[in-house]
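Our consortium's second objective concerns turning raw sequence data into structural hypotheses that experimental partners can test. To show how far this objective has progressed, the report includes one record in full. It was chosen at random from the queue rather than selected for favorable results. The single chain below, 198 residues long, was entered without modification.
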Amino acid sequence: MKLCIFAGTFNPIHNAHIKIAEYVLNNFGFDKILFIPAYKPPHKNYDPNFSTHRFNMVKLAIKNNPHFEISDIEFKRETKSYTYDTVTDLYKQYNTDGKINLIIGTDAFKQIESWHETEKLKKLVDFIVFVRQNENVDLTSLKNKGYNFQIAQMEFIDISSTVLREKIANGTSITGFVPMKVEEYIKENGLYQNKAMA
């Protein structure tokens, strides 16, 4: 099985996340896209009690695509979510055809050398790097250092989780920006009603 993982905070998951996963599935020949919501992101300060809501929203957003799956691997660990630890565990769980791939944006990829166990990680995964339209990015140095990657140049969709949280806190509609089931979940649970939440 050719496996690609899409890890992130997903706070909340939105339509651009779904489009990215669909693009990778359709253009890179994977059998499964595995969504991995971070329980406790290492570089961000989030309330762990809110993590369950983020997990539930991802589950709702992807349930209609048989090639999408959600993993609770980082929830079971209940510590900071380091990609190297997650990938190591996934190789034990899945019979993969070749290396596991990892979806990543250019901003994060430029910081990859600062990641936990980066020298070991680069031997375990190949990266699919999403470059924004009209963004000039030179990743030659990372290629030369042994980070294997492919570039995905999907048409940029300007949706930000940060902006969506602000819209909700301000009482502005987010219809069309998130899957309908996610919007219903946010309303039913009163999420993001104030800017300090999550």
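The partners drew two points from this record. Residues 15-28 form the longest helix (14 residues). The CA atoms of residues 3 and 32 lie 5 Å apart. Both points have been shared with the crystallography group to help prioritize constructs.
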